[in-house]
């Protein structure tokens, strides 16, 4: 029995028996940078992902999420920085530790579902008998059993998405990377996917990295979320902490009949007492304030004073999206 | 063994991609049909040549008898009736027309040659006969020989093989015609019927054994096979690039699959396709009248040679796929490379000799640097001349050697550009 856990700090354990520092995180990105000519796709990213957590990468399209992930799993060489997976440099990490479900559908269209899975299983050197069991279990879990012998080209979009995921986990990897897995999914397939992601963490203890631009998905599934934009990490915390961070306030969401007058109104609203922020997002005005409902009367008075008409108005509690708006000053470029 | 799974996967994909399969199999067959139709009769020994005759001959009157003669018409009829030796197949299909329409026929290659008989042709013949008669007998003095000369013109496109052949035959026939007329007159004077003058030099044209009935198509058919095999590189390049484009290669890259598994696995089904192409195209060519001299053993040998050529094409496909940015681009680059290469290896016609040295007693030409040149040479020897392994071993050996070199280059480039982490 090794003597461990004598010094615990900052996710590291010092093993006095071997003298090694033992990590309890799965992936560590150190100052990761990727530039294409003048474009800085990822800019000095420092992230640690713990074992057994669902880690969400939240950011608009083109924020650098996929590039970051590709570097973190060794598919793309960083311009500078390094990635350590389970204590080993990504270049020398044993193959099969990571499973990737890419953003695009990456399937062999002229093979059946079973043939796709069986091929990838063989590529990971899973013995035939175990492979057969796993293929069947995945087909069952992802509701593809009755399409097992159907050519991929004949499947619906949702079915293809589920098979895309199954291919990423056929070899039971330690780390599962899901790049925008809900993209283009119908609500039913999305529910299947989300419950499968939870079961991977809760029942199989897998580390799941999830990129998404869907707030709800990031909020519901992630243990921790990294908000990233223009290749930079803006914030990294639990969804609860992120929401708490920007206060207890509510948000008044307003749409004017004439959006060209948004700025005039924003300039007036910002001077209201206790207003935390007023921004324009996708042609709508978002006013965040403590006791927003109480501010509503004054706000409407200003609207009338300016002779502006309101087309749509709602008040809701802070969401992750509001966190994002607070951090970036803009909405998600979905 | 992972490469077998890749081979099975590729094989299933090839078979199930109906459109791709259609292209791989039918495209060369289509070419073979066209070439068979176009060149099937060309060069065959007993085929009539198309000749247009423009006869300006005004005719003449024979001295002594006062008989009206037209040797221009006579020559035309002689040409019409001439047949191949020991055969009743005519030498010429003759059309008589005006000079301007003859010119059109010639330009469009609807005829092989044009024969223009001048207006004083009969006069010249009469003069020839008169001079023969005067020199043959001393009693017929007082008749002056009208020493008229006329020029028979053989006109044609000198760059056209059909003209070359027809011209050769015509020159011979015109000589014989003149000689025949002279001999006939001499025999009449001497009162002896039709004795031929003694010949001191005789010329015989002999064909290489088995090639008596050969046509241009027999030369082209193996070329078509190699063209089809070479064209495989286009499909292989497109398929490999599609695997990159669709991301499936990336999926495989992060698995435990090695470059060897992917490339060797891919090699197996595509080599089988190359072998199948040889068999299918040989079948089509035979249906189109290929004079092949092989046996079942020849087909077996031809398939092996075809498979080696196929491997070279796959290697070329890998090289193209190493640089192509999309499958469409791969197909375009492939076509851009394979079509000129087909010409370079002599698939469509023989190229001028460009000898760069000697190797094992064989002249080594610049085209011999391409493995498919040897594939083609070997296939021609095996299928057309029924040669055995011994006589093609050098060609096959060279083809293997060059294929190995090309394959190493292909594996190196594809592994380096596609099977490693992106930069």
Describe the structure.
The complex is a heterodimer of chains A (334) and B (423). Chain A is α+β, with helices and mostly antiparallel strands and 334 residues long. Chain A has ten helices and 17 strands. In chain A, a hairpin with a 2-residue loop joins strand 15 and strand 16. The longest helix of chain A is centred in the middle third of the chain and has 16 residues. The N and C termini of chain A lie far apart (51 Å). Chain B is α/β, with parallel strands linked by helices and 423 residues long. Helices cover 61% and strands 8% of the residues of chain B. Chain B has 13 helices and eight strands. In chain B, the strands form three sheets. A four-stranded mixed beta sheet of chain B has the order 4-1-5-6, with helices on both faces. In chain B, helix 7 packs antiparallel against helix 9 and helix 12 runs antiparallel to helix 13. Chain B starts with a helix and ends in a 5-residue tail after the last helix. Chains A and B meet through helix 2 of A and helix 1 and helix 8 of B.
List the helices and strands and how they pair.
The complex is a heterodimer of chains A (334) and B (423).
Chain A: E1 8-9, E2 12-14, E3 21-23, E4 25-36, E5 39-50, E6 54-58, H1 65-72, E7 80-85, E8 88-89, E9 98-101, H2 113-123, H3 128-141, H4 157-169, E10 175-179, H5 187-202, E11 207-212, H6 215-221, E12 224-229, E13 232-237, H7 239-245, E14 250-256, H8 262-269, E15 275-281, E16 284-289, H9 292-305, E17 310-317, H10 320-328
Parallel strand pairs in A: 6-11, 6-12, 9-10, 10-11
Antiparallel strand pairs in A: 1-2, 2-3, 4-5, 4-7, 7-8, 12-13, 14-16, 14-17, 15-16
Chain B: H1 2-16, H2 18-39, E1 49-55, E2 60-61, E3 68-69, H3 71-81, E4 92-96, H4 99-107, E5 113-117, H5 121-136, E6 153-155, H6 161-190, H7 216-245, H8 248-253, H9 259-287, H10 296-323, H11 327-344, E7 355-359, E8 362-365, H12 371-384, H13 389-418
Parallel strand pairs in B: 1-4, 1-5
Antiparallel strand pairs in B: 2-3, 5-6, 7-8
Helix pairs in contact in B: 1-9, 2-7, 2-9, 5-6, 7-9, 7-10, 7-11, 7-12, 9-10, 10-11, 10-12, 10-13, 12-13
């Amino acid at each position: 029995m090794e003597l461990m856990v004598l010094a615990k700090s900052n996710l590291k354990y010092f093993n006095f028996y071997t003298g090694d520092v033992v990590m309890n995180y799965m992936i560590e990105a150190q100052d990761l940078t990727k530039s294409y000519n003048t474009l800085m796709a990822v800019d000095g990213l420092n992230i640690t992902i713990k074992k057994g957590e669902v880690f969400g990468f939240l950011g608009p399209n083109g924020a650098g999420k996929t590039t970051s992930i590709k570097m973190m799993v060794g598919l793309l060489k960083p311009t500078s920085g390094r990635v350590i997976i389970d204590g080993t440099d990504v270049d020398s990490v044993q193959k099969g530790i990571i499973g990737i479900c890419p953003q695009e559908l990456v399937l062999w269209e002229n093979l059946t579902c079973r043939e796709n899975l069986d091929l990838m299983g063989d590529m990971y050197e899973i013995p035939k008998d175990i492979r057969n069991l796993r293929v069947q279990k995945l087909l069952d879990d992802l509701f593809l059993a009755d399409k097992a012998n159907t050519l991929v080209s004949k499947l619906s979009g949702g079915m293809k998405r589920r098979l895309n995921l199954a291919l990423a986990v056929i070899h039971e990897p330690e780390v599962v990377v899901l790049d925008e897995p809900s993209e283009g999914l119908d609500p039913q397939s999305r529910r299947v996917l989300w419950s499968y992601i939870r079961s991977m963490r809760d029942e199989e203890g897998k580390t799941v990295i999830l990129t998404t631009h869907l707030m709800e998905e990031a909020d519901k599934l992630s243990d921790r979320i990294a908000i990233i934009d223009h290749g930079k990490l803006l914030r990294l915390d639990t969804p609860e902490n992120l929401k708490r961070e920007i206060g207890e306030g509510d948000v008044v969401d307003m749409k004017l009949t004439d959006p060209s007058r948004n700025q005039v109104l924003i300039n007036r609203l910002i001077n209201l007492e206790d207003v935390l922020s007023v921004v324009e997002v996708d042609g709508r005005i978002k006013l965040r304030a403590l006791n927003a409902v109480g501010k509503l009367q004054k706000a409407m008075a200003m609207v009338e004073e300016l002779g502006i008409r309101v087309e749509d108005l709602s008040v809701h509690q802070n969401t992750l999206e509001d966190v994002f708006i607070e951090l970036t000053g803009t909405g998600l470029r979905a | 063994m992972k490469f077998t799974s890749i081979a099975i996967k590729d094989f299933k994909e090839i078979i199930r991609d109906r459109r791709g399969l259609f292209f791989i199999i039918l495209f060369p067959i289509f070419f073979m049909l066209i070439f068979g139709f176009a060149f099937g009769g060309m060069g065959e020994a007993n085929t009539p040549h198309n000749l247009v005759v423009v006869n300006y001959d005004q005719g003449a009157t024979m001295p002594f008898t006062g008989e009206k003669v037209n040797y221009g018409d006579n020559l035309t009829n002689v040409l019409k009736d001439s047949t191949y030796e020991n055969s009743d197949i005519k030498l010429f299909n003759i059309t008589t027309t005006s000079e301007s329409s003859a010119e059109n026929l010639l330009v469009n290659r609807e005829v092989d040659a044009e024969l223009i008989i001048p207006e004083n042709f009969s006069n010249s013949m009469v003069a020839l006969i008169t001079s023969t008669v005067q020199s043959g007998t001393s009693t017929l003095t007082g008749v002056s020989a009208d020493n008229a000369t006329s020029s028979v013109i053989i006109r044609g496109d000198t760059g056209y093989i059909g003209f070359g052949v027809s011209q050769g035959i015509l020159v011979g026939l015109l000589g014989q015609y003149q000689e025949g007329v002279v001999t006939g007159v001499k025999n009449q004077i001497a009162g002896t019927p039709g004795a031929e003058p003694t010949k001191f030099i005789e010329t015989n044209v002999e064909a290489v054994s088995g090639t008596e009935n050969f046509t241009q198509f027999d030369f082209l058919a193996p070329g078509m096979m190699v063209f089809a095999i070479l064209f495989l590189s286009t499909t292989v390049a497109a398929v490999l690039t599609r695997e990159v484009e669709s991301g499936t290669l990336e999926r495989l890259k992060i698995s435990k699959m090695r470059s060897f598994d992917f490339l060797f696995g891919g090699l197996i089904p595509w080599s089988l396709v190359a072998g199948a192409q040889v068999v299918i195209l040989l079948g089509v060519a035979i249906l189109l009248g290929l004079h092949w001299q092989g046996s079942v053993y020849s087909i077996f040998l031809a398939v092996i040679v075809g498979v080696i050529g196929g491997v070279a094409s796959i290697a070329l496909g890998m090289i193209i796929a190493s640089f192509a940015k999309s499958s469409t681009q791969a197909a375009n680059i492939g076509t851009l490379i394979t079509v000129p290469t087909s010409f370079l290896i002599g698939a469509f016609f023989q190229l001028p000799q460009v000898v760069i040295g000697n190797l094992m007693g064989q002249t080594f030409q610049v085209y011999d640097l391409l493995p498919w040149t040897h594939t083609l040479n070997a296939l021609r020897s095996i299928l057309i001349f029924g040669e055995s392994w011994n006589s093609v071993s050098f060609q096959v050996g060279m083809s293997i050697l060059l294929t190995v070199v090309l394959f190493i280059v292909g594996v190196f480039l594809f592994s380096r550009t596609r099977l490693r982490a992106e930069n």
